[in-house]
Amino acid sequence: MGQKVNPKGFRLAVRRDWDSRWFADKKQFPAFINEDNKIRTFLNERLRFASVPKIYIERAGQRVRVKIYTARPGIVIGRKGAELDKLKADLSKLVNRDVLLDIAEVKKPDLVAQLVAENVALQLERRISFRRAMKKAVQTTMQMGADGIRVQCSGRLGGAEIARTEQQRQGRVPLHTLRENIDYGFAEARTLYGIIGIKCWICNSEPEESI
């Protein structure tokens, strides 16, 4: 059996911080975890085309503060903040609590692994060749000043009968050096032939911008 560890969990408390920040006793803990999952699932489905790499959740008393990182804040906020108010009302209804929404803009989406993986997934869904999509993602990220990038696609690539894994990499991506700033992202492309999984690792020399 494979002994793979999630790259985000592997770096927790060393390079990364938790995506949820709150404290609860034994009775409340499962309910809060379930609530966080509900919020994330709802927002990821609703904001699928708004390029959202991360959702940060904080709790204080009965209030829940949700911070949405997005590369396209215009889509999330809407005209005169109409979409944002609607989103806030729907979230409050979902969890039966007061929900505060904050929007943070991602300045360089090409250096965020989750967004690169989602971009490749969208291209595969539009029937663009997987090699071309991967190559373009690698070139764009390297041009933006990354130290290295690795993109991996798994599934029935190009509609082949047998599923396989292909990858492209450029620069350096030292996955076992915990001090290195490695960003990881995973996305799924729902194609006609089945689901194709896309994984992306990006090594940045500069410290990550609050994401």
Quick summary of this structure?
The protein has 211 residues and is of the alpha/beta class. 32% of the residues lie in helices and 30% in strands. It is globular, with a radius of gyration of 18 Å.
Give the helix/strand layout.
Layout: H1 7-10, E1 20-21, H2 29-46, E2 54-60, E3 63-70, H3 73-77, H4 82-95, E4 98-105, H5 113-125, H6 130-143, E5 148-155, E6 164-171, E7 181-191, E8 194-204
Parallel strand pairs: 1-2, 3-4
Antiparallel strand pairs: 2-3, 5-6, 5-8, 7-8
Overview of this structure, please?
The protein is α/β, with parallel strands linked by helices and 211 residues long. Helix content is 32%, strand content 30%. The chain has 6 helices and 8 strands. The strands form 2 sheets. Strands 1-2-3-4 form a 4-stranded mixed β-sheet. Strand 7 and strand 8 form a beta hairpin. The protein is globular.
